[in-house]
Amino acid sequence: MKIVKLEILLLSMLFLLVGCTTNVEQELTKEEAIRLAIEGENQLSTIVVFGQMDRNKALDPRCDSFQSEDHYFTYICDATTEADIRNKLDPFYTPKYIEEIMGNFRIQHDKNGVLAELFDGGYSQKSKDSIRKVTIEQNANRTKAILDMYVGLDGERDVNTSKVEYEYVQNAGWRIASNGLLFSEMKQ
Questions:
Q1: CA distance 111 to 104
Q2: Which InterPro entries does the record cross-reference, listed alphabetically (predicted)?
């Protein structure tokens, strides 16, 4: 009798674990994307465009203007139209490159009013700087995404610099998809 109870307990725990895993996978979908990945110079650059987002929860607290660090991460705030985005990009890129970026946007508005955009250069099979593997680690309300990418001019992989980690607290409104895209669940 004790063995049967133990088996039932173990099966119940296994069911709970499997259920939790399934729920996590369901959260990591491709809806409400706000990450805009572009290739710049010889590395993968990222532009994140925020529209109508809670300023207090923005990734960059100085998000009143275009922010950049070593041409790797760039933030644009309060851009809700193509004209807004072009104006923010104008001081930093040539007109031809801006046209290339804008030509690859897939623009949609999610239910929270956030402008969702993606330039797919960094994920293309032809790209030399593509993200090759994404590992998702979750612990309580924290999610960490470890991106493994090829970073060289000729596509060679530098094992010392090819891993990039992002960590977000989910109750602050962020989650990360299994393909490396960042997603917003911000409420107005």
A1: 22
A2: Endopep_inhib, TA_system-associated_sf
Please write the tens of the pLDDT for every residue from 48-91: 555 544 444 444 444 444 444 433 344 566 666 778 778 877 76
The structure's pTM equals 0.34
As given in the structure block, the two tokens for residue 96 are 């031809």
Query: What is d(CA 78, CA 88) in angstroms, rounded to the nearest whole number?
Result: 10
Tell me which DSSP letter residue 33 carries. B
Whole-number Å distance between alpha carbons of 49 and 62: 14
Binning the chain into helix, strand and coil, the percentages to the nearest 5 are 30, 30, 45
Rounded to whole angstroms, how far apart are CA atoms 147 and 177? 11
